[in-house]
Amino acid sequence: MEDILKKANYWLSSFFDEQTQKDTQNLIDHDPKNLEESFYQNLAFGTGGMRGIMGVGTNRINKYTLGKNTQGISNYLKKSFPDKKEIKVAIAYDCRKNSDILARVVANVFAANGIKVLLFSELRPTPLLSYTVKKFGCQCGIVLTASHNPPEYNGYKVYWEDGGQLVPPQDEEIIAEIEALQFDEIQFKGKEDLIQLIDQEADQVYMEESVANGTFNVPAKDRENLNICFTSLHGTSIKLVPPILEKAGFTQVHIVEEQAEPDGNFPTVKSPNPEEPQALSMAIELAKQKGSDIVIGTDPDGDRLGIAVRNENNEIELLNGNQTMVLMTWFLLEKWKQKEQLTGKEFVASTIVSTPMMKILTESYGVTYKEGLTGFKWIAKLIKDHPELNFIGGGEESFGYMVGDFVRDKDANTSIVLACEMAAELKAKGKTLISKLKELYVEHGYYQEHLVALVKKGLDGAEEIKQKMIDLRKNPLSEINGEKVVLVEDYATSEATNFQENKSYSINIPKSNVLIYYTEKGTKVAARPSGTEPKIKFYISVNTTLQTVEEFSAKKVEAEKKINHILEEMGV
């Protein structure tokens, strides 16, 4: 506690503004628990940048922690581009509380360091920021967002000149630069002439490329015949999704007006996360009224999407992230095949915790499949590392997808166009996304996944998560649901152990706190602490064969029973 008090007392010095000093003193005098939570560590970069609760302290999002990040990045940019006459940075922000204020703070720090800033004057979705960095020749990009985290959070994502998020070793070099700074070294007084507001010039070219990448040869009448219901869940995608769908030729678009106004309080949802079934409940109700074929919702910064579609009984059914990813990948592969563009020099990418069906589906088209750690920064890195290959598309189980490489992050806007294009074509053939998915299960095997995310908040929660991963490593599973474990991959040590062949080998992927078990019958169980939220996540995948579509319901019940038994065994 002595160290925490020392850190807190520093925040009472004259460098910090009066309100910050007052709030810090209040924690010292009246709230020792929150004082500890606010100062026990420096807020760190995780899977999707830096996210945290807003407030005073080194473990909180505020003008000083973000200012220090920005000062460190400014120093790093100057070292990285010593001969560049004008270093440029693009900055965007979402609907969260204080995002606009914090974006201006970040812009001022860059400008104070002589760096040119392209600042969006209004909230914009994250994929547009990734696109802008690459399209407008910026060396770096920042977006102020906490994605789908609760309302008290905000965050800070950093992109590099290829449009992808930071990856090792660059992220570690920047973190070292940041950690070497004292708060009083932050230059907050920006040069206004170095800050340029942008909007339409980026919007228009991005929307054109989004439509070009997401549409194929579906007739105009089929697009017009698709009935779409859309909700932005109080987020930024309301700015671009409706005009993009209009440009693409989709004329029947019903918007959930109660959720159309950007609002960082997210008043109509428990969580603004399309992974949560409840998030799309209002959209589903509107879809029932309007007779919609497809329901789509996005998270606050417009990079994830959730989808619900009509099934064979005309009921609206939610798809999970793995199912959406499989369908989009199939559609892209099929279109590339029809256009005779598959030359053997293409690839599809996903992540180590996503469905194994992605690999099987991709390779059935003779296309290379590549896999990385959780987070789209790793897919962007695969694109950068393999310029000899053309990237078709890729995604991960957490409701994100990337169509082509013009954006180097998950992109809900273009994915929505692709999903609607696919739904329109299938509807014209008398099919649905659900019926097509079942056909793919017959062809490639039926895979069912389930995610459990245990929330463990604060310092105690962090210790509990840490201990859980230690216990899993000290007491490894030898059986799962009566099936022998034949392979264990430990990404923290970069070592895999194959028990059938009695040998170990190195994993050629950067280290991460992830543990994955595989059984003799293809069951897969992964455990990892979230890199963006106070959670530990367990990913379960089971599979079986499906001879006919008619067998699906029975096989689904079997798979669900198996998953529930595994959860009971693991005590989660």
Automatic annotation (TrEMBL):
Cite a single GO MF annotation: phosphopentomutase activity
The record's section on Pfam families has:
PGM_PMM_I, PGM_PMM_II, PGM_PMM_III
- The answer to whether the entry has keyword Disulfide bond is no
UniProt key word Repeat:
no
SUPFAM superfamilies per record: Phosphoglucomutase, C-terminal domain, Phosphoglucomutase, first 3 domains
User: What is the required cofactor set for this protein?
Assistant: Mg(2+)
Q: Which InterPro entries does this entry report, sorted A to Z?
A: A-D-PHexomutase_a/b/a-I (IPR005844), A-D-PHexomutase_a/b/a-I/II/III (IPR016055), A-D-PHexomutase_a/b/a-II (IPR005845), A-D-PHexomutase_a/b/a-III (IPR005846), A-D-PHexomutase_C_sf (IPR036900), A-D-PHexomutase_CS (IPR016066), Alpha-D-phosphohexomutase_SF (IPR005841)
Q: What are the GO BP annotations of this UniProt entry? A: carbohydrate metabolic process; purine ribonucleoside salvage
Keyword line: Isomerase, Magnesium, Metal-binding, Phosphoprotein
Occurrences of domain Alpha-D-phosphohexomutase alpha/beta/alpha (ranges): 44-183, 220-308, 320-435
PROSITE patterns attached here? PGM_PMM (PS00710)
Protein family per UniProt: Belongs to the phosphohexose mutase family.
Record's protein name: Phosphoglucomutase
